[in-house]
Design goal:
Strand content: 25-35%
Radius of gyration: 18 Å
Distance between the termini: 41 Å
Shape: globular
Largest sheet: 3 strands, antiparallel
Structural class: alpha+beta
Helix content: 25-40%
Low-confidence stretches: 4-16
Number of strands: 5
Order of helices and strands: HEEEEE
Oligomer: single chain
Length: 79
């Protein structure tokens, strides 16, 4: 039990450290999700364009168009 707890603590610590390093490198991706009628998700940063999955819908947004996620099987996958 003690060894399992120590191993779990070590894994969580390593993951937290890796996450902190990613954030410190700057913005990784920014998807505005305002594309209409396409399967493409443009990344404003320019490195991680994505593909829209699961028949994501389009609708009116606060300032223009927006993306509507209707369930757990919908999402954006980086290319």
């Amino acid at each position: 039990m003690r060894q399992t707890l120590l191993a779990l603590t070590a894994c969580v610590s390593l993951l937290a450290s890796a996450q902190a390093q990613l954030v410190s490198q700057g913005l990784i991706a920014r998807w505005r999700l305002d594309e209409v009628g396409t399967t493409y998700a443009h990344d404003s940063v320019g490195r991680n364009h994505g593909t829209r999955l699961g028949g994501i819908g389009d609708q009116a947004g606060i300032s223009g168009r927006a993306t509507s996620f209707q369930g757990a099987s919908y999402g954006i996958t980086p290319r």
